[in-house]
Structure formats: C-alpha cells, structure tokens
Design brief:
Distance between the termini: 79 Å
CATH topology of the largest domain: hpI Integrase, Chain A
Radius of gyration: 28 Å
Order of helices and strands: EEEHHHHHHHHEEEEEHEEHHHHH
Structural class: mainly alpha
Number of helices: 14
CATH superfamily of the largest domain: Intergrase catalytic core
Number of domains: 3
CATH architecture of the largest domain: Orthogonal Bundle
Number of strands: 10
Largest sheet: 3 strands, antiparallel
Shape: elongated
C-alpha cells in the first residue's frame, strides 16, 4: 500500500500541481514543476513555510513578473489591452519567470538585443517596454499583498532604445493623392477622400455613424460628434477616441460631397461594404495601390493610411491656418481648448477646413519640390 501524499497536491498531465487553501493566508494554485511526488512535497512544504513567515513577520512575498503581468491583464480596462497582451507574450520567455524585483535594464537587455537582431523597430520595442514599466509602477504604487505591503519596493529606471530607425510620415501632394485614390476600390477611395479632408483616424472613419451627425441650423451646416468614451452597439464595441475626448468633425465641400454620396445607403454607418461596417482602410488593397502608385516603399517613409491625417495637417499649415485651429481640426488633445463650441466657432472651423480645397487646390509647388528632393535622395 502506497504512502499517503500531502493534502493539496494533485497530478495533472504527469506533473504535480498545488491547490491548497491555507487558513488565514490564502489559496495556493500553481505547478510544482516536477513529476516526482517527493520533490513536489518539498516544493509545497517550502511554499507553506514562506507563507507562514509572511503572515507572522510581514515578509514581502516573492512574485514572478508573469504573475504581475497576469494580474495586469485581468484588471486593466484600457483600449489597447489586446496589443499589451501580445507584447507580454513576446516578453515572457525573457522575463516571465523572474521575480519582479529582478526585472530591470540588465535582465531586459537580452529581449532588447533579440528584438534588434530581428529588425524590430525601436518604436515597437519602446511600446513593449512601456508595458513592463506600467506593470512595475502598478506593483510599486498600487498593488498590495495580504500584509498591506507593496508588490515591489521601488521601480528601476528603464531606458528606451532609439536606433534612429523610425519611418517618417509621407504627406501626399495632389497628384499623388489622385493617382493613389484612383487605384483603390470605390468604397476605400470614398473613405480615404473623407479622411484626408477631416483629419480623422482610421477607426473613427470606419465607425462613423449617422446618429453621430448633428445639424446646426444657425449656420446651415452639419457636423459629426464622435463620442470619446466607449459605447456598445449591436455589431460591436466602439472603444472611444484615442484621447478619450469627444471629437467635433467639421466638413469642407469635399467631405460634404462624400457624405452626400453615402447618405441613405446604410441605416447606421456612413461607410460600409456589403451592408456591414468596414473594419479597416489599411487593407491589402491599400498596400497594393500604394506600391502601384509609385509612392515610397523603401522603409524610410510610412505607407499606411495615417499619412492622410498628416496630409491634411500639412495642407492646413500650408494655407496659414493657425496652430490652435489646426489642433482642433486634427483632433489633438489641448487643455486650452474647450470641447463645447458655439455656432460661430463651428463656422470658423469649417472656413479653415475649406481653405485646403480652395479655388485651385493643385497649387502647392513648394511642398512638392522639397518633398520629392528628399524622397529621391533616399534611394
């Protein structure tokens, strides 16, 4: 007859696991990492001893970065959580097993070096390290254990890499815009034309709804008000704007013509395909059209649809629209600007947006010559 095992141990897939409730302390649920019962009992015994010391003497618990990352993913409600989860999945082989006290520039260097060897952009690595820093800040400043002790006593400085490899934005001139848009499917061309005349981000165009439209009879104009916070709709969750603020979208004559052409085609969404909301503008069709149009494809410049926002901003500046007005039209956060506008202020914004499509919008030779010279020198 075999000897009795310690309570709290069970075998799963050939490995002993712990599942034990300890009175006055809490529950232990984790793998012992061994298939031998004798070794598993040693692991459990040591774990119980440490927990009792923590209870009696208030000794700070040792927690892995993986446990901290798991807690972060379970509790966070930020819009980019899925991207953060992808970042942490990449980081886990390098720091997942480490105690959070052992996560610092020294232990992160292997991840940084590996990313560079894989030709990952430094901007991407910065975003991934920012997730690590956020978790360490929470462990130090917010999270507390059963003894009211912080998970981490101090946060090490994390130096963000900069390999001078970030791609630059590529604002389009009028001829490049015409060539590119003519190569796009009609539904994408409409969305791109609207985007380049409103400065909206990609998802703000994709989600644009008719019930966000507001008529302002005092100036005989319509605008859209995009909600800053998340809202649930029948076909999905609108996550809100990037800065969490309501976005006022004014229309110039080109964006008005796009809206006129879309009106009545779908009950809910301004832009759609086959009766459904469009998920992305930056599709394979966009990428193919960009290359076919002869636009830069050498890595020095970005190729995505965000270039349309930069194009709108560059055109506003070129026609002398003041900085503060440009910030509103480009939907940038600015503490000095109220989110409530009078009809006269809306009319002023519309007039500024109209200036980028004046009587002869193709006259912008200075910007074109400078940009083409830089582009041609990049090879």
């Amino acid at each position: 007859m075999g000897r009795k095992k310690m309570p709290g141990l069970f075998l799963r897939n050939g490995v002993w696991h712990i599942d034990k409730q300890v009175k006055g302390i809490g529950r232990i649920r984790e793998s012992t990492g061994t298939s031998l019962l004798s070794e598993a009992e040693v692991v459990l015994t040591r774990k119980l001893a440490v927990m009792h010391q923590q209870k009696i003497y208030g000794i700070q618990a040792v927690r892995s970065f993986r446990s901290a990352a798991t807690k972060y993913l379970k509790e966070s409600t930020k819009k980019s959580l899925r991207r953060d989860a992808d970042c942490l999945k990449k980081l886990d082989p390098f720091i997942g097993d480490l105690a959070i006290e052992s996560v610092h520039m020294g232990s992160l260097q292997a991840f940084i070096d590996n990313s560079r060897q894989l030709s990952v952009k430094s901007a991407t690595v910065k975003r991934e390290l920012a997730v690590v820093r956020q978790i360490l800040n929470l462990a130090s400043g917010v999270w507390r254990d059963e003894n009211d002790k912080p998970w981490l006593m101090g946060v090490p400085k994390i130096v963000m890499p900069d390999w001078r490899d970030s791609a630059q934005a590529y604002p389009l001139n009028w001829d490049e815009q015409a060539t590119l848009f003519n190569l796009l499917p009609a539904y994408l061309a409409n969305m791109a034309l609207f985007k380049v005349n409103t400065g909206l981000r990609e998802q703000e165009v994709c989600w644009l709804r008719w019930d966000w439209e507001i008529k302002i009879p005092e100036i005989n104009a319509n605008i859209f008000l995009i909600p800053g916070r998340s809202q649930q709709y029948s076909d999905g969750l609108w996550l809100g704007t990037k800065n969490g603020e309501d976005q006022v979208v004014v229309l110039n004559k080109i964006s008005r013509s796009v809206i006129k052409g879309q009106r009545g085609k779908h009950a809910d969404y301004v832009f759609h395909i086959n009766g459904h909301r469009v998920n992305n503008i930056n599709t394979s069709a966009w990428k193919t059209a960009w290359v076919t149009a002869g636009l830069p494809n050498n890595g020095r410049y970005t190729k995505g649809v965000h270039n349309l926002k930069h194009t709108f901003g560059r055109r506003l500046r070129a026609v002398g629209v003041p900085l503060e007005t440009r910030k509103v039209l480009l939907h940038h956060t600015n503490g000095d600007i109220t989110s409530h506008y009078s009809a006269a202020e809306i009319e002023e914004l519309i007039e500024a947006a109209e200036r980028v499509v004046g009587e002869n919008p193709h006259k912008s030779p200075t910007m074109t010559l400078i940009k083409n010279k830089v582009a041609s020198s990049s090879g």
